[in-house]
């Protein structure tokens, strides 16, 4: 286990470095530069700005300078906003996005699992249909439409929640729901189909014939095995939560990382793009690592590093 | 009990738009009997007067020298003050300076500062603060985007365009601004500039507290270290989230300021901002979603204000791309647009169709400049068809090849582009492809000449037709159309340097005629500044080239 | 209750004369895997409903735009924002364009994008994941690492970057599809790989291998039928996810250029209209997306049930 873990960590670092390089190259190949203004500006000013941010140096030099500052954990200044450095952007934005994402994930997992299990146990009866209808709504309505409706009814009309911003806990509810709908629906469906498969397995039949109580069977055997595909997919869902949150953050005026991230792409704010990509990728890699290790723990039959015998 | 019910019923009836002037109970003056049951109003009748606004975007820089645009200037215009300022009617009046004189040759201006002016931290505002600020903005190492506004100063251009390795100190010393003493500022211009006084109220000309900046170059990045000299001071700044302005007790006219605090949120999404306004979380919304705008305008909603705006919406044509080098073809396109439909049904903000380039709101020798200009061309589909044919045959072509219109991503621009695309197809049988790109990309490509047609808008930096006409001089940095006309250049030059108002105005009118004759760009409409403001907020005025100003605003609950 | 036991006499029983191999014969008519699946599918009413809806949508996508004589691009501002009526069956949008025609024109684009993306993701994902899982060892390691690297760059960033880089060359449907599938196949690959890894250890596979079958043959004959379940569920969700992503791209201004329409751009255009009470403009594309989702879901469910050999009756 230890050697395996060390190997994985080493690979993770290598991955990160490759991502840094790839993103750096990709970004500087996008047309457009961050300093354009309506009506453009005199060349002198343009050149001053380029010089100030090292944009006039050859690409390789910029790359080197950047790696250097990265080693000191300094992501550099933002090109668009002189008052905040990238580090500050991340420091301010990440906890907020994390909060939003975690809340949404919690809602998604809890309700997703419940709906999925219930649907599978009451297959083709009304709980199944109800759960699946909710699931379909969750998957089929794009989250920006959902968010707009949520605001329109729950906030403006019925005044149950505030419309936007991130000031108090009640401000976090609508956005979390909007963000959770799709992963929740996804989990529900996956769990349902997975449970159905598992319930048909021989060992479940064995357990039943042994006389085990239904609830024991469900919890101890069925769910534990059925959850595997969901766990695989969890990593991806979490990844999507954090990026997909851009739209939610934009609509609800939440100052998180998602919003700043896509904004920076449109602004060609290279340091912010690089900084947040790297930071975010690092987290993703970390998460995938955890999922992989969890995988082995749940199903000991999988020997991941073994090859053909 | 019944009154609670009525109030709640009132909330529900104040539906999607605030277009029910007779019934909204939450905005009426509480006349004692309803006040206590009002479960919906956000601010108590007693208590601090707080104005709630949306800044739309996180400020790029709240330093007057490195500010980048309206998401910076709105706050700057209320926290700082320059040598002069403007009345709600747009007149230039003394600001930090009480009086000024010009020399015979109009090249030297001397400003005398007021006695009782202080920074928000108690320091006195001195002429040195102005000299320091202007030189800082011109310093090439500052990399200020608006430094060009200071090019009117002697030595300004040279200092700012210094090459690497140049003697910066010498160049800085040569810039034409000097503090003669604490209260006297002497300014030397590179050439006579008739609208210079107007410029002194622009934010690049604001002062900086020299002592504060020398001690802490990053003073402007956080509220705790922020020092300004205007009606309000910045007390809180949660980056990307919110800002708070509080009345500046050290401001010399603080008795004229009614508001206690101003709270800014940062909501990028127009629809959300409108919904916040509807639910009472915001007191003023600008800009408005287009459809909402149209409805408010159509219903004559009392909360809707159609403010003036000194800007023009137009299409750039790359005159270097065949066959758009031919003026007839360009004119044909211009004449085949139904501007009234666009203004009424697409933009929906009460704008006016533009048959010239310089928008209304600039005083001429007598009357309004744009009114005096009148319509320099007419919409006429038949004429347009003819011109198109003629132009094409002159260029040796049978038909106009498919070309691309580039616009920056936005719902509004998209709808306008679509409408015009359809108009040209219907009226001229011309095929056009639409392409939307990010704002930065569009500007880059315009500068590089990598486009055929592009959508553009220009806001006047100061109140004089020159701020528009200056755009299209040969090789001008803003001449994305790549158009060149010697006579035009001549006339513009006359208007720039002459101090005779009548002569200048005539020259500019003549220049504009040439511009519309050749049509290197196609004007579409003159902007307005439509916004909504809650009835309990009074005293908001809209200068022609900035956001609604709330310096003298008041809240009457 | 009377316990009527029939009297069993020796004469009632006759030994069945059989050859050895006959006893081994499977006494049911032999159906190929796919034929069996199709029969089972047909019985599933809900799944067939889904299939029907998909077919109807496809047909309408093809002929819909021609049904009422309006084009999808003609604007008539005197008729803007009309509710559905006799002339404009779905009403008009804020430029006076007929929504019925635009909805079906948009159907073409949205469905095409969805199906293409799902197809590409499925193909690449299954092949990649299948090989990786079946091979195991160093090859599996390497392949998964490469996938990981690609996947660790946030999806939206990849999509936007690709869109922006491609925007110089071409705009339209294909850049969107390419941008979405460049890393979109990875979840499928991981899923397949996971399933394959799991199944590799199952008894019947080990049995097959013990009998001398090669891994590829085992893959084809045994693994695929058994992994089809979750894979198909995943595919049926890819189609609407792709339509979704396209809608997101529209929100960001990177969608299909005007005046063309997809359900995504129609939904995005209509966002502002609900502020003034025109819900129908948003409802129509949203409903169509949901309907498509529903149809693909139940059909996919049915497919999964039909293709699972363990559910064979």
Structure description:
- The complex is a heterotrimer of chains A (309), B (557) and C (313).
- Chain A has 309 residues and is mostly helical.
- Chain A has helices at residues 2-28, 43-52, 59-71, 86-121, 126-140, 143-157, 169-199, 202-210, 214-252, 257-266, 270-298.
- In chain A, α4 (86-121) runs antiparallel to α5, α6 crosses α7 (169-199) and α7 runs antiparallel to α9 (214-252).
- Mean pLDDT of chain A is 78; it is low at 305-309.
- Chain B has 557 residues and is α+β, with helices and mostly antiparallel strands.
- Chain B has helices at 2-13, 70-79, 127-138, 156-160, 168-173, 196-199, 210-215, 270-278, 290-298, 327-335, 339-347, 369-373, 381-394, 411-428, 439-448, 466-469, 486-497, 501-518; strands spanning 50-54, 84-86, 92-94, 97-102, 108-113, 177-181, 184-188, 232-238, 242-247, 261-265, 284-285, 304-317, 352-353, 403-408, 432-437, 453-459, 521-533, 537-538, 554-555.
- In chain B, α10 packs antiparallel against α13 and α17 (486-497) packs antiparallel against α18 (501-518).
- Chain B is globular and about 70 Å long.
- Chain B starts with a helix and ends with a strand.
- In chain C, 67% of the residues lie in helices and 0% in strands.
- Chain C is built from 12 helices and no strands.
- Classes of the chains: A mainly alpha (309), B alpha+beta (557), C mainly alpha (313).
- Chains in contact: A-B, A-C, B-C.
- The interface between A and C is large, with 63 and 60 residues.
């Amino acid at each position: 286990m230890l050697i395996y873990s060390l190997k994985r960590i080493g690979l993770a670092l290598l991955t990160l470095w490759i991502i840094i390089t790839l993103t750096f190259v990709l970004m500087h190949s996008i047309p457009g530069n961050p300093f354009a203004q309506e009506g453009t500006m005199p060349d002198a000013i343009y050149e001053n700005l380029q010089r100030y941010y090292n944009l006039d140096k050859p690409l390789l030099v910029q790359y080197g300078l950047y790696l250097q500052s990265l080693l000191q954990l300094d992501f550099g200044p933002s090109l668009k906003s002189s008052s905040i450095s990238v580090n500050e952007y991340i420091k301010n934005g990440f906890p907020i996005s994390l909060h939003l994402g975690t809340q949404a994930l919690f809602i998604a997992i809890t309700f997703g699992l419940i709906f999925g299990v219930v649907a599978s146990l009451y297959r083709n009866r009304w709980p199944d249909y109800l759960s699946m209808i909710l699931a379909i709504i969750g998957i089929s309505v794009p989250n920006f439409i959902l968010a707009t409706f949520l605001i329109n009814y729950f906030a403006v009309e019925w005044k149950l929640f505030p419309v936007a911003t991130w000031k108090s806990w009640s401000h976090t509810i609508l956005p979390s729901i909007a963000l959770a709908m799709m992963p929740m629906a996804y989990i529900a469906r996956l769990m349902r189909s997975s449970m159905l498969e598992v319930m048909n397995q021989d060992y479940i039949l064995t357990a039943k014939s042994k006389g085990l109580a239904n609830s024991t069977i469900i919890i101890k055997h069925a769910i534990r095995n059925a959850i595997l595909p969901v766990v695989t997919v969890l990593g991806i869902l979490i990844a999507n939560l954090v990026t997909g949150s851009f739209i939610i953050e934009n609509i609800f005026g939440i100052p998180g990382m998602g919003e700043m991230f896509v904004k920076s792409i449109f602004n060609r704010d290279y340091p912010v793009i690089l900084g947040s990509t790297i930071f975010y990728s690092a987290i993703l890699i970390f998460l995938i690592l955890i999922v992989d290790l969890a995988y082995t723990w749940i199903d000991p039959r999988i020997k991941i590093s073994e090859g053909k015998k | 009990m019944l009154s609670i019910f009525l109030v709640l019923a009132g909330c529900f009836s104040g539906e999607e738009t605030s277009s029910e002037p007779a019934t909204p109970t939450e905005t009426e003056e509480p006349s004692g009997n309803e006040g206590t049951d009002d479960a919906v109003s956000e601010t108590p009748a007693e208590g601090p007067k707080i104005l709630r606004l949306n800044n739309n975007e996180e400020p790029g820089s709240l330093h007057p020298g490195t500010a980048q645009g309206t998401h910076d200037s709105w706050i700057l215009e209320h926290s700082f003050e320059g040598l002069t300022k403007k009345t709600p009617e747009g007149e230039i009046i003394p600001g930090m300076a009480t009086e000024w004189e010009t020399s015979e040759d109009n090249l030297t201006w001397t400003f005398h500062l007021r006695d009782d002016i202080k920074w928000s931290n108690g320091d006195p505002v001195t002429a040195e603060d102005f000299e320091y600020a202007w030189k800082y903005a011109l310093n090439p190492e500052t990399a200020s985007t608006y430094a060009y506004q200071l090019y009117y100063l002697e030595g300004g251009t040279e200092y700012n365009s210094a090459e690497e390795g140049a003697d910066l100190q010498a160049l800085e010393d040569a810039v034409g601004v000097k503090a003669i003493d604490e209260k006297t500022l002497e300014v030397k211009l590179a050439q006579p500039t008739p609208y210079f006084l107007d410029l002194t109220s622009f934010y690049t000309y604001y002062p900086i507290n020299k002592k504060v900046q020398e001690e802490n170059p990053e003073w402007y990045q956080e509220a705790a270290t922020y020092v300004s000299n205007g009606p309000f001071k910045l007390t809180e700044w949660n980056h990307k989230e919110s800002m708070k302005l509080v009345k500046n007790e050290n401001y010399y006219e603080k008795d004229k300021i009614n508001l206690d605090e101003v709270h800014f949120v940062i909501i990028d999404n127009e629809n959300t901002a409108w919904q916040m306004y509807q639910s009472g979380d915001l007191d003023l919304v600008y800009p408005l979603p287009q459809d909402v705008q149209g409805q408010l305008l159509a219903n004559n909603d009392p909360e809707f204000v159609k403010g003036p705006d000194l800007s023009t919406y137009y299409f750039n044509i790359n005159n270097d791309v065949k066959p758009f080098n031919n003026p007839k073809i360009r004119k044909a396109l211009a004449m085949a647009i139904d501007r009234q439909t666009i203004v009424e049904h697409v933009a929906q903000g009460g704008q006016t169709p533009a048959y010239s380039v310089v928008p209304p709101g600039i005083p001429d020798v007598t009357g309004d400049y744009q009114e005096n200009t009148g319509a320099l061309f007419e919409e006429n589909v038949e004429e347009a068809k003819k011109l198109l044919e003629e132009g094409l045959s002159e260029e040796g072509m049978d038909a106009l090849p498919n070309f691309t219109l580039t616009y920056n991503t936005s719902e509004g621009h998209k709808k306008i582009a679509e409408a015009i695309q359809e108009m040209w197809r219907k009226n001229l049988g011309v095929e056009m492809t639409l392409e939307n790109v990010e704002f930065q990309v569009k500007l880059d490509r315009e500068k590089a000449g990598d486009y055929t047609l592009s959508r553009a808008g220009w806001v006047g930096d100061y109140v004089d037709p020159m701020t528009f006409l200056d755009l299209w001089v040969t090789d001008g940095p803003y001449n994305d159309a790549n158009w060149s006309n010697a006579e035009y250049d001549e006339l513009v030059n006359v208007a720039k340097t002459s101090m005779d108002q009548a002569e200048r105005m005539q020259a500019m009118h003549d220049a504009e005629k040439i511009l519309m004759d050749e049509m290197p760009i196609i004007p579409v409409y003159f902007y307005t500044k439509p916004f909504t403001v809650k009835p309990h907020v009074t005293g908001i005025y809209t200068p022609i080239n900035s956001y609604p100003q709330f310096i003298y605003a008041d809240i009457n609950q | 209750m009377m316990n009527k036991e029939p009297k069993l006499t020796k004469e009632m029983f006759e030994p069945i004369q059989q050859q050895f191999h006959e006893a081994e014969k499977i006494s049911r008519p032999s159906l190929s895997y796919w034929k069996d699946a199709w029969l089972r599918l047909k019985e599933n009413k809900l799944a067939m409903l889904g299939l029907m809806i998909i077919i109807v949508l496809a047909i309408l996508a093809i002929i819909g735009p021609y049904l009422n004589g309006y084009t999808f691009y003609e604007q008539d501002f005197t008729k803007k924002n009309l509710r559905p009526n006799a002339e404009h069956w779905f009403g008009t949008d804020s430029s006076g364009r007929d929504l019925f025609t635009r909805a079906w024109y948009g159907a073409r684009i949205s469905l095409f994008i969805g199906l293409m993306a799902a197809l590409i993701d499925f193909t690449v994902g299954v092949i990649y994941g299948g090989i990786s899982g079946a091979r195991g060892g160093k090859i599996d390691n390497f392949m998964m690492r490469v996938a990981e690297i690609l996947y660790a760059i946030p999806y939206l960033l990849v999509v936007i970057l690709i869109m922006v880089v491609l925007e110089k060359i071409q705009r339209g449907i294909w850049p969107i599809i390419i941008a979405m599938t460049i890393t979109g196949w990875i979840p499928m690959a991981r899923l397949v790989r996971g399933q394959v890894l799991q199944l590799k250890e199952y008894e019947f596979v080990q049995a097959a291998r013990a009998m001398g079958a090669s891994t590829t043959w085992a893959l084809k004959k045994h693994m695929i039928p058994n992994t089809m379940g979750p894979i198909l569920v995943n595919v049926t969700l890819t189609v609407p996810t792709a339509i979704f992503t396209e809608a997101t791209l529209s929100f960001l201004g990177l969608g299909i250029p005007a005046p063309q329409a997809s359900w995504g751009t129609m939904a995005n255009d209509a966002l502002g209209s609900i502020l003034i009470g025109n819900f129908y403009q948003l409802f129509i594309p949203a409903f169509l997306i949901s309907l498509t989702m529903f149809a693909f879901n139940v059909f996919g469910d049915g497919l999964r049930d039909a293709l699972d050999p363990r559910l064979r009756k």
